[in-house]
Amino acid sequence: MTVKAIIFDMDGVLFDTENFYYRRRELFLNSKGISIKHLPPAFFIGGNMKQAWRPILGSDYDKWDIEQLQKEYTDYKSSHPLPYKNLIFSDVKDVLERLHQQEVKIALASSSTKSDILLALTETDILSYFEFVLSGEEFPESKPNPEIYNEAARRLKIPKSDILIIEDSEKGIAAGVAAGIEVWAVKDRTFGLNQTAASRLVASLTQAVDDAF
Question: Which CATH architecture has domain 18-79?
Answer without folding.
Answer: Orthogonal Bundle (1.10)
